[in-house]
Every structure is written in structure tokens, then in C-alpha cells.
Amino acid sequence: MRKQLNKKVAVFKSRMNRKRALIADTFCLTKRRRCAADSVTGESQADIRSSLQYLVTLFSRKLFNDSLPPVVLKHQLYSLHNDKTSVDKQVNELRETGELLMFQLGFDSEAFALVFAEDFRAKVLQGEAGRGTLGTVEKFLAKLIPSCSDLSFNKEKMLKEFLFTDSEITQLVKSGVLTVRDAGSWWLSIPNSGKFIKYFIKGRKAVLGMVKKSKYGEILQTELEGRRTTSQVKFQMKYHIHDIIGAELVECIQTTSGTLLRYVDGNVN
Amino acid sequence: MLLFCLILINMTYPSMTFARVCSNIYFLNDLCRHALLPLQMFFAIERQSGLDDPVRLRRAESTRRVLSLELNHNRDVDRIHGNGINTLDIEVIDGRYMLSGGSDGVIVIYDLENNSKKPQYTCKAICTVGRSSRHVHKFSVETVQWYPHDTGMFVSSSFDKTMKVWDTETLKPAEEFQFDGNVYCHHMSPVARKHSLVAVGTKDPKVQLCDLKSGSRIHILQGHRGEILSVRWSPRYDHILATASTDSRVHIWDVRRASGSLFTLDQHNGDKSKTSSEAVNTAHNGRVNGLCFTADGLHLLTTGTDDRMRLWNSATGENTLVNYGKVVNESRKGLKFTVSRGCSPEFVFVPCGSSVAVYGLHSGELITMLRGHYNNVDCCEFHPDYQELYSGGKDCNILAWVPVLRQPDIEDEETNSKRGGTQAAINPAFEDAWSSDED
């Protein structure tokens, strides 16, 4: 009887061992995935802020003679963090607290620019110094920065809520803080950002061209970072790489020699 | 003295004591916890001992199976279509028969059940409405759907501007509805008992509701400004209908109301400042060509040619802002995609180019890409009972994605090797364990 019992226990134990060996079982995979998701959502705002600060260091200030605040694109954050939904949520939280400002750049309906509020204010006031429109711009910034997180304003809002007059609105457009969107409504914009957009689009096209022209249309990320930039590319290579990965203009494949970037067909740009 | 007696009893009847102890469920539970068993065994033991809800084990196992979907060389579907496959539908009652409609106008019915005792199985086509039939559609069949309450009837709509209601037995149309423009899609409510309306989306901006009982088509829903690419009834309420159109808008209708739609879906949730003024109140920045309700009807998924997929709260029309990233979508007609059922978390299966992308429904992350088709994938359908996915595309193949089977136990392997190697091929469920040898 004892022998039978021992045999039962032995079989039970072996079965347990075998089942334990099935740890590659997707059960643990789902658990791991859930843990990974938790860790991303558990990431405090500090992580997004630190990613933003890292991306800000990649922005070339000297290019614009220090007249532009450092601009980061929202989809560049997607290349640094896996969970896009939580990135969106955290960016919105930062905008609600008035720390971050978001702008619609105009060349792509999905491309949003992010600027730290203090940088924006400092640069705008620096640009306006000595001009007659300074007072109006200051008033506008005071209304905008802590409370309002809109991307565009229509006439009603400007006149009634913000209590601006028509001539003041014209002054704001002249100073570059507002851009015309449509009859009676304006986008919030960064002054002197036209040059930025021009260089950005050219540089993006050039970098994408580099990936496309490589053999098989793919290139290792480290190799691309090391390539010599043409005169078209004015920003740092890493800035453009984060942009094309985040906007999903290239496919990111993990290989044993690092990340491979493969050109995705059907791009509009 | 008492102690000595106890020890004596233990020595003479050790097995009995052990058995009694083992039958104590809490001991078994602790044993599992300390032995660090894989979660699967843990779920099974908790279910067995009643500590856990049976639904939890089922949901966990369904999720594991969906995560391990892959092409299986044992499972095949008969290749009948000569041109691409546009639509698939699996019947709701048994999950046994599948309809497919192709670009050549042919409609085929397959039997998905494996009654042979071998694991290698091809889903045979039971009957077809082929090009030789008098009643076959002249141009490509865009949508087919089984009658939701039994398999005696199915409805198909096609680019030859007709919608036909077929009798499955005779394969002849019992009713035919003529329209003015190409019919892109149609849908019958899966839960309706009081009405038998078929919503039809055509080139005309008006959504037409055809009544199967009376044959009338006077009910029209006005509100769209472009071709209707997709219509879908809610699986929760029999009067709620969602329609998607090339004017970038998605309308939610209550068919009992005489006036217009309940609301339209707005991707910016009413924040008019985020977009240019023409794009205000749109669901997508391009044509909206795919609609799918989740199984509980609480959420609605839409896909558009702006390469985005959005998840909406179907009661309020609020955009939940789940970011799926770029969901490549170049379809000029409707895109047919599907959501899993009975798993936690739920998954969305979207045809993306020549593969099927699997996303987590609420997290938005890309789980995997199912690659296997040689050309664009047009439609996919999820079988909720077996957690299998069937996808059809321009390469005229229907591929069956089957969950990877578990490895057999050591105990089973030992007994199999005793009986003989051939026994291992037969599924133990098909083994004859009750016939007596005397018969």
C-alpha cells in the first residue's frame, strides 16, 4: 500500500514538474504583459517630463539664433515609450496643469508640437521686447498659460472670454502668436516657426530618403545615426530618427545587432 | 500513551491518513501555492475546489488560446473561389457552418466541424452558388450574413445593385431587393426578435431599411452626405444602428425615432479647437470604412483611411482616445474586421495589408501580426467557441488560425507508448471507452 502511495506521489510530482516546465506558457506571458503595462501606467509624469527634456536637448537652438523655444513633436515620445495611450494621457495631464503647450503645426493633421510653457513665454517676450505689441502679447500669455489648453480660438472666444478688441487681435497675429485658420478663427502658434517647419519637413524627407535608398530599404539605427548628414538635414540625426519612428514612417525591427529601421511603402511624404 | 497509539495507527494505515489529508482542499491549495505551479494548474485547482468562479478559468484559457494563434498545417479550408474573398460569416447557433462571398459573385458554404478522427482536416465546401447557377450575383458579392436565428436562410448583397435573400435548402433566392447604386454592405440585427429589418448601405447617402417580413423598403435614414461603406446593428439593443460613410462621419441611429440620428461620433470629443474647421465633428480624417461593436455592445470600433482605428463608448459617443498607432488601411470599400469574445483582455483582429494585426482592445498595443496570406486580406471572422480566426483575401485562400495545442502529459505519453505508437494520433475524446468487448 505504501508503494502504491509513493508511486502516486511520484507521478503527481513529475506531472507538477512537467507543468512547471511549461512556464513558457502564455499564461505567464499574459502576466508579464500585464506587469509591463502596469509599469508603464505606473510611470509617473516625471518619466514623460524627462523624455521631453531629453528630446529638448536634441533640438538645435543655434540654428534659429536662439529665437525659437525648443520644440518637440508629440509623436517623438511614442518612439521612447511603448504605450501610446498612456503617453497621450500624461501629455494631456501636463497640459492641464499649464506646464506644457501644444500647437497644431499645419503640415499634418496628426503632428502636434509640444513646448514647455516657461520656455515659450520667455522666448516670446524676448522676441517682443521693444515692440509696441508687447503689452497685448503679455496679456494674452497671462490668459493662456495657466488655464487655457486650446489649440485654436475663434472670434467669439477672443472677444467675449478674453476681452480682446479687434485691433489687439491684429497685433497678436502680427506678433506671430496667432495664425489665421479660417475666417474668424486662429490657431495658436509659435512666432518664427515657419523656418522650423520648412527645415523640419526637408530634413524628414532627406532622412527617409536615406533609409529608402539603403540596400533592401532598411538600415540599422546605429548606422543611420553615424551617417554624414547632407545639407538638407539641419537638425540632429537623432531628432529626425525619433520623429520617423514615432510617426510610423519606418518599421522598427529588433535584431541581434540592434534596431533595424525598414522603410514602409505607401508613405505620403 | 495517547501519542504512542496515534503513531501506531499512523504506521498501520498510512495511506488512509494521507488520503484523508489530501482530500482537504485547503491543504491542496497550499501545496499548489508553495510548489509554484504554473497559473493554468492553479486556475484549474481553484475552479475544482470551488474557490474561484468557473468563468475565470474559461476566460483565462480563452485568452491563452487567442495569444497563441498560428497557422496549423493540419487545418485547411477548401479552395473554391477563383477570385478574391470579400466576406466571411460564421453562423451563431452552432458555429459549424461558414459562408463566404467572393469577387466572382460565388457564394460558398463550408462545414467547419471536424468529424473525422484524424487531426488533419480540410473544411469541406458543402454547397456553392456557383457561376452556373441561374440566380448567382452578376458582380462581386460584398457582404454575406446568415439569418441570425437559424441556418435556413442567408442574405447576400453585391455590386450588381441587388440584395438577395436565399433559402439554404434549395439555394434559390426567396426575395430580391433592387437598389440604385452598388450595395456596399448590409447587416441584420443579431438580437432582434420584434423586427427583421436589414440595414443596407449603398452608394446613395440614404441608409435603407428593408423589412424581411413584409418586403417593404420605405424606411430611410437620412443624414449622411456620402456613400455608406459600413452598417452595423448593436448586439445589445435591437433598435440601435451605426453607419459609416465616405463623408468621414459615423451616425448612431435609433430606428424607432422618426427624426434624424441620435448623435455622430466626434474624434475630438467636442473640442472644436483641435482641428481645421471643415473637419469638425468627424469620426476620422478620411473615409470611415469599418465598423465593429464589441461583443457586449458597450464599445464601437471604427477604422478609417486616415490609418487610424478608434474606440468609442457606444452609449455616449465619446472617443475613448485609445491610441492604436498606424493601422494601415487602403481599402476603397468596406473593411471587415472583428473582435474576440470571451477573453480578458479582448483583442481586435484587423486586416492590414497582407497580414492580420492583433491589438489589445483597451490598451491599444499591437500584440502580433498574423502573416500567411499572399495578397491583401479583406475580411476576418472569429469563432468564439474554439477561439479560431478565419481570414480571407485577394489570394483566394481562406486561412484558419488555430491556437497552438498543449503538450500531452507524461502520464498520457507513458500509457500511449504501452498500447502502441499509432494510438497517439487519435484524440482521446474520440476514443471508444464504453462499448463492451462482447458485442
TrEMBL record, chain A:
It holds the Pfam family Stk19. One of its GO terms (biological process) is positive regulation of Ras protein signal transduction. InterPro entries: STK19-like (IPR018865). Belongs to the STK19 family. This is Serine/threonine kinase 19.
From TrEMBL, chain B:
Gene3D superfamilies: YVTN repeat-like/Quinoprotein amine dehydrogenase. Residues 412-439 are annotated as: Disordered. Keywords: Chromosome, DNA damage, DNA repair, Nucleus, Phosphoprotein, Repeat, Signal, Ubl conjugation pathway, WD repeat. SMART domains: WD40. Pathway: Protein modification; protein ubiquitination. It comes from the Eukaryota. It is found in: Chromosome; Nucleus matrix. One of its GO terms (biological process) is response to light stimulus. Its main location: nucleus. Residues 1-19 form the signal peptide. Pfam families: WD40. GO terms for cellular component: chromosome; Cul4A-RING E3 ubiquitin ligase complex; nuclear matrix; nucleotide-excision repair complex. Part of the CSA complex (also named DCX(ERCC8) complex), a DCX E3 ubiquitin-protein ligase complex containing ERCC8, RBX1, DDB1 and CUL4A; the CSA complex interacts with RNA polymerase II; upon UV irradiation it interacts with the COP9 signalosome and preferentially with the hyperphosphorylated form of RNA polymerase II. Interacts with ERCC6/CSB (via CIM motif); promoting recruitment to lesion-stalled RNA polymerase II (Pol II). Interacts with KIAA1530/UVSSA. Interacts with a subunit of RNA polymerase II TFIIH. PANTHER family: DNA EXCISION REPAIR PROTEIN ERCC-8. This is DNA excision repair protein ERCC-8.
